Amino acid sequence: MERLQKVIAASGLTSRRKAEDLIKAGKVKVNGKSITELGTKVSSKDEIEVEGKILEKEAKEYYLLNKPRGVITSNSDDKGRKTVRELITTNARIYPVGRLDYDTTGVLLLTNDGEFANIMMHPKNNIDKVYLAKLEGIIKGEQIHQLEDGIPLDDIVVKASRIKCRKINKESNTCMVEITIHEGRNHQVKRMFESVGLHVEKLTRKRIGIFTTEGLHSGEYRKLTPKEVQIVYSYQGK
Ligand code: URA
């Protein structure tokens, strides 16, 4: 379910601010009923009418990108950097589901389906986000326990739901650690490691839910299958 003004704005008809004005002015109907409440939520099944015209529904599109380094997770960038949106050829108003840093690589989903994006991002759905981090220094058992017990971050405590040291390189004094989290706070993995005194040199997202980069080279993408979309919808409320 999404806010009515957001759905109207996402259709490209007008801005969110103007959509709010139209709702307040009684010019919007949902399933034939006039709605003036700004908080009203609608689903993709609802018929929305703005000033007597039925809102065209854009077909839902879903993409899985193997995000390369040096690309910003955004639809536009005022500094002129390359964006993930530029890597995908479609006219649909898709946007990234969550965010990977400029230098982070790996699994990134993009869609124009707000409900799908909400399901993937909501921590209550406990969807695994699995990262492989190259760390400066060698992680100690005590640091692993701290990450498993929980780290205060912003206003919450975040935990590694799984963490495993995969490789140790004594010569370069680095290690590869696989960490699974369920939230998606800004720079969460880097900040979690920093908080136990470890710097992340490289980071890649290996998996989110059922999605991996299998079969995709860096910068390549594919459409999700209807079955995959259906599986994501089945996560809701579990
Ligand atoms: N955590 C980070 O620190 N960076 C990312 O890009 C994703 C998760």
Write a compact overview of the structure shown.
The protein is an alpha+beta fold.
Describe the structure.
The protein is an alpha+beta fold. It folds into three domains: 53 residues, RNA-binding S4 domain (Structural Genomics Hypothetical 15.5 Kd Protein In mrcA-pckA Intergenic Region, Chain A, Roll); 86 residues, Pseudouridine synthase I, catalytic domain, N-terminal subdomain (Alpha-Beta Plaits), CATH 3.30.70.580; 81 residues, Alpha-L RNA-binding motif (Alpha-Beta Plaits), CATH 3.30.70. Helices cover 21% and strands 31% of the residues. The strands form four sheets. Strands 7, 8, 9, 10, 13, 14, 15, 16 and 17 form a nine-stranded mixed beta sheet that branches. Strands 3-2-5-6 form a four-stranded antiparallel beta sheet. Strands 1-4 form a two-stranded antiparallel ribbon. Helix 1 packs across helix 2. The longest helix is centred in the first third of the chain and has 9 residues. The radius of gyration is 21 Å and the shape is elongated. The model has no long low-confidence stretch (mean pLDDT 94). Bound molecules: uracil. Uracil (URA) binds next to helix 5.
Gyration radius (Cα, Å) is 21 Å
End-to-end gap: 17 Å
Share of helical residues: 10-25%
Under the CATH scheme, which class of the largest domain?
Alpha Beta
Overall shape: it is: elongated
**Total count of strands:** 17
Mean pLDDT: 94
What is the CATH topology assignment of the largest domain?
Answer: Alpha-Beta Plaits
Low-confidence stretches: none
Instruction: State the fourth-level CATH superfamily of the largest domain.
Output: Pseudouridine synthase I, catalytic domain, N-terminal subdomain
